[in-house]
Write a structure and sequence with these properties.
Elements: H1 6-12, H2 19-32, H3 36-44, H4 48-56, H5 63-76, H6 80-88, H7 93-101, H8 104-116, H9 121-139, H10 144-157, H11 161-169, H12 173-181, H13 190-204, H14 225-237, H15 240-254, H16 260-270, H17 273-278, H18 285-298, H19 303-310, H20 316-325, H21 332-342, H22 349-357, H23 360-372, H24 382-394, H25 406-415, H26 418-425, H27 432-452, H28 463-467, H29 490-493, H30 502-507, H31 514-525, H32 534-543, H33 547-556, H34 560-573, H35 577-584, H36 587-599, H37 602-614, H38 628-638
Helix pairs in contact: 2-5, 4-5, 7-8, 8-10, 9-10, 9-11, 10-13, 12-13, 13-15, 14-15, 14-16, 15-18, 18-21, 20-21, 21-24, 23-24, 24-27, 26-27, 27-31, 31-34, 33-34, 34-37, 36-37
């Protein structure tokens, strides 16, 4: 039977249309497979293993046929070549059994083959659960060939979050870290250290609790200062391939709120931030992306340190701006780069000055405009990219009062009509950060309106009018801004009234995000600030039906910061006697002001007291900061 094409002919009947022929072929091949000599012959027929695997998992075949196909496969598994074919067809159990129970040579062979297989995610979990511990032991072998085979297999398996977690439980971290840090005669070749670094990056992205798993001889964890220092040393002293993977390890660790502070502390103590920033100029895109993502994760915690590094002549800031401005759609690298710049201290005048000098803001304006007009192709990174662009652009509004860059910032805001741009973005529904930052920028711009408005020049009074003031009547000048008392425009003086921004800001007071509400209230409060006509500012809010929304913000008590702003705005509104009279009959407003008076911080209590006086809930002769008991007594007496 083994001679000639007999076995091949019988295998062909497995694909026959007639079920009887198929069943007889299966029965015959099952009997032949009992001979170890014929197992290799059957497996060598092209497609035989694949057909048997399909039959064994079929729901349409005769039950007896399925059973015999299963038994045939079990017999064929005596041959390692057949086991490899089965694994390629998705039947991995024979391979895993050999990996667990075979001879050292067989284990090595199966591990090496496993590393070359393409596995789906579900299979990766099965392999990790079944053979993960065995592969980790093989990885710790003194035989370099075995270690290489194990590392390649573990690299394949660890690339899925669920299977990576299984490997962590099986103890993969300590030998991985040891392989990376070992130097001398027992160290891994660099090509295998790269594989180890890749596996470590994979398992870190699983989101496990890495500050509780010992990885070193003295019970250090992956986020211990010594381990982070060693990783930073390797990043700076190995090639770009390994450095890229180790940067990805740090990206994973800084992406978790439970481990980011340990990493930040270790980077600060090592002084490595300067060397990490240098990687943003790397020619290798993967390395540059990893470094920018890491710096983006660090920026909320090390913003000033990063600003200090970028504010210089080394060129890293220019490299970031070049990445952001690349006209290649919107990539993860661009979103991370602009997010990094967005998190830097907005009041760092030196950094803003340098960005002005490098023409960064003009480029950001162009990209924002193209996105708003639908000219830029969308991607999954569109939202963080747009958030970052608007926030970075808003930093120019913090520089308006700076001596070094104020004039240039003012000229840029006027030239590009930034007030109109930010007003337009108040209506970017669904983009909370864009709306919040736009409102904050408008607050900064509006604060400057009273300084930029052109006040009218009146002629000196005549001789009689100077003696008899009753004869002097100021001339009436049409077209003046009611709030700022001068000639205003949106482009030149950033006047919110001229830009029809009031209704849009009032609408945002009802937003579900308290940060958007607070920013909008702050922008509206510039109409009630010292240096403007407060009575007219109140009237503007009345005309926009904005008084009730401001009062509602006070009643909602969402955050302490928002309450402070609401108390300030309400006190200004209550200077209007009509509003004060109407509010005095609302016990909810009075109670909210009393609560702020009793429990707010120092400044808020002062303002709340003035507000309560406006509605006659505290007599004007009452002492500042009366006790809660006396406050309640005064309220009862006044009512």
């Amino acid at each position: 039977m083994a001679e000639g094409d007999t076995v091949r002919t019988v295998v062909k009947f497995l694909s026959h249309e007639q079920s009887r022929e198929r069943e007889e072929a299966v029965s015959l091949l099952y009997e032949l497979s009992k001979s170890e000599r014929l197992c290799d012959k059957i497996g060598s027929v092209n497609g035989a293993i694949l057909i048997f695997v399909g039959m064994a998992s079929s729901n349409s075949e005769n039950v007896l046929t399925v059973e015999k196909a299963e038994h045939t496969l079990e017999n064929l598994a005596q041959c390692e070549n057949n086991v490899r074919q089965m694994a390629e067809c998705g039947r991995l159990h024979p391979l895993l059994n050999l990996l667990l129970e075979g001879s050292p040579e067989t284990k090595l062979s199966m591990a090496a083959f496993l590393g070359d297989l393409v596995l789906n995610n579900d299979v990766k979990v099965i392999v990790a659960s079944t053979a993960g511990f065995s592969l980790i032991n093989l990885m710790k072998s003194s035989n370099m060939e075995s270690r290489e085979a194990a590392l390649k297999a573990l690299n394949q398996i660890s690339s899925y979050e669920a299977s990576a977690k299984v490997l962590i439980e099986a103890g993969i971290l300590p030998p991985l870290v040891k392989d990376l840090f070992t130097v001398g005669t027992k160290q891994l070749p660099m090509r295998l250290k790269e594989v180890s670094a890749t596996i470590l990056a994979n398992v870190v992205y699983s989101g496990h609790d890495f500050d509780s798993i010992p990885v070193g001889p003295d019970h250090q964890t992956l986020v211990s200062e010594e381990i982070i220092h060693n990783l930073l040393h390797l990043i700076s002293n190995t090639g770009p391939a390994i450095g890229c993977k180790l940067l990805q390890v740090l990206v994973g660790l800084t992406s978790s709120s439970s481990t980011v502070y340990n990493v930040v502390s270790a980077i600060k103590s090592s002084g490595a931030i300067t060397s990490l920033v240098q990687f943003v100029e790397a020619p290798q895109r993967d390395l540059r992306l990893a470094s920018i993502k890491l710096l983006h994760n660090l920026s909320p915690h090390m913003g000033q340190e990063l600003a200090d590094c970028l504010r210089g002549t080394s060129g890293q800031l220019g490299s970031l701006i070049s990445v952001i401005s690349e006209n290649i759609g919107i990539t993860e690298e661009q979103a991370a780069a602009v997010g990094l710049l967005a998190d830097l201290p907005e009041r760092d005048a030196g950094l803003t000055r340098q960005m002005l000098d490098e023409g960064a803001f003009q480029m950001f304006i162009s990209r924002i405009t193209r996105i708003r007009q639908g000219e830029t192709r969308g991607s999954r990174f569109m939202t963080p990219y747009q958030d970052g662009l608007v926030k970075v652009l808003s930093r120019i509004t913090f520089a308006l009062s700076e001596e070094s860059s104020g004039a240039a910032a003012l000229a840029l805001c006027r030239e590009h009509n930034l007030a109109a741009l930010f007003i337009d973005h108040l209506q970017a529904n669904g983009l909370d950060n864009v709306q919040m930052v736009s409102a904050m920028a408008l607050e900064n711009l509006s604060q400057e309106s009273k300084n930029l408005t052109t006040l009218p020049e009146f002629p000196p009074p005549g001789y009689c009018a100077s003696i008899f003031t009753c004869l002097s009547k100021p001339p009436i000048i049409m077209g003046l801004c009611k709030v700022h008392r001068g000639t205003c425009s949106l482009r030149e003086t950033f006047c919110l009234l001229e830009g029809q921004a009031i209704d849009k800001l009032v609408a945002l007071l009802d937003h579900t995000n308290e940060n958007v509400v607070e920013a909008s209230l702050a922008a509206l409060s510039t109409l009630l600030d010292d240096g403007v006509d407060i009575d007219e500012g109140v009237q503007v809010l009345l005309d926009a039906e904005g008084v009730k929304p401001v009062l509602d913000v006070l009643l909602e008590k969402r955050t302490d910061s928002l309450r402070r702003r609401a108390v300030w705005a309400v006190e200004r509104l209550l200077r209007n006697s009509e509003i004060a009279y109407e509010v005095s009959g609302d016990p909810n407003i009075s109670n909210a002001l009393v609560d702020a008076f009793q429990h707010g911080e120092y400044r808020t209590r002062q303002i709340a007291e003035r507000a309560l006086k406006h509605v006659d809930k505290i007599p004007n002769f009452s002492g500042i900061f009366a006790s809660p008991a006396s406050t309640q007594k005064n309220m009862r007496e006044s009512s």
